[in-house]
Amino acid sequence: MEIIRKENGSKGQFQALKSGLEVGLMTYSVAGKDKIIIDHTEVSPSEKGNGVGQALVMEAVKYARHTKIMILPLCPFARSVFAKNKEIRDVLV
């Protein structure tokens, strides 16, 4: 699986691809120069339970650490990943 990030102005997304096909998507809004707000995560029905959503959140964490920004997870799924994983809360708003 490959995860790519796209950003256009104040909107962005992390897209999970498998064999070139989208199997997951997480969208976010840029909130100033030091924060992103994750607002939606979706996974293809055929990939549910295979860790695609978790991988998207972890890619956002990696991006946040690299760029020294924080994450506000408004999306219930992303919020649950942060609640379950103490080791990624260093980027949590």
Description:
The radius of gyration is 12 Å and the shape is globular. Strand 3 and strand 4 form a beta hairpin. The mean pLDDT is 97. The termini are far apart. Strands 1-2-3-4-5 form a 5-stranded mixed β-sheet. It is built from 2 helices and 5 strands. With 93 residues, it is an alpha+beta fold. The protein has a single domain, classed as Aminopeptidase, CATH 3.40.630.30. It is 27% helix and 41% strand.
Task: Identify the CATH homologous superfamily.
Answer: Gcn5-related N-acetyltransferase (GNAT)
CATH class: Alpha Beta
Rg, rounded, reads 12 Å
**What's the total count of β strands?**
5
What number of structural domains do the residues give?
Answer: 1
The portion of residues forming beta strands comes to 35-45%
The N- and C-terminal alpha carbons lie at a distance of 28 Å
Gross CATH architecture: 3-Layer(aba) Sandwich
Low-pLDDT residue intervals, each spanning 5 or more residues? none
Number of helices: 2
Structural class assignment = alpha+beta
Shape: globular
**Which strand order spans the largest sheet, edge to edge or round the barrel?**
1-2-3-4-5
Largest sheet: 5 strands, mixed
Rounded average pLDDT: 97
Helix content: 25-40%
The CATH topology corresponds to Aminopeptidase
